[in-house]
Amino acid sequence: MKLFTVEEANALLPEVRRLLAGIDRSRATLRRMAPEAKLASENPGGGGVARGFQYSDALATFIALTQEILGLGVEIKDFDQGLLDFPSERDGKIVYLCWRRGEESIEWWHDLDAGFAGRQRIED
After folding, report:
1. What's the predicted TM-score (pTM) here?
2. Fewer beta carbons within 10 angstroms: which end of the chain, N or C?
3. Residue 75 to residue 83: CA distance in whole angstroms
């Protein structure tokens, strides 16, 4: 498990924002095409091959970008909110630095079992 300082996690935010934007685009495509994909899977000979490729491309992009974020050592907690946790050490124990899409920088942390509701402001 990679442990981040606040500075390291903040330095990674531009890359994380870029990856999340791609994830959001691919998820929007998947949601938009879900009814067609369902119909195509129920009727494989129905001629939806081109749309099927679009759907599978969006799915592959979603998976690849998600893996990139995870590969950085960052945990994804909620795709809709863009809620991410960066493992860190605080007072000798492992905690999460918590960030949500739209926040300028990482200003919150919480215990591993506390979740978003247990967020506490990082003291300088």
Report:
1. 0.87
2. C
3. 9
